[in-house]
Amino acid sequence: MYATLSRCLAAATFALSLGGATAAQSSAAPTLLPAVLSVHVKDFKYNPTPATIHVGDRVTFVNGDDEAHTVTAVNKSFDSEGLEPGNTWQHVFSKPGTYAYFCERHPYMKATIVVLPASPKDGTAK
Ligand SMILES: [Cu+2]
Known about the structure:
- The chain is α/β, with parallel strands linked by helices and 126 residues long.
- It contains one helix and eight strands; from the N terminus they run H-E-E-E-E-E-E-E-E.
- The structure holds copper (II) ion (CU).
């Protein structure tokens, strides 16, 4: 009984320390607004891809590599330009569609974001 409890406490403490690390990371960029999706750039890949969001949604791109990347739309509708290691960049997608994007510095890095019309629960329908 007691052993079970202390195992629980150990797990809770571990979870808390993980949460603390996450909070410390996000506090490094205080200007960031809440985003519905974070796309991580890591090992020369965007993740997740393809990703699906809705019109008006804000996406945060996080460069977790030791190399600068860009988030550049094939149709040029958005471009992060140089995104240094550890930096983040945000974009709000205001039109529905399928957006293919890539890294200008490593053109083999490709990904897709699908933007759906506003979801009914936003109150835009009816
Ligand atoms: Cu790149």
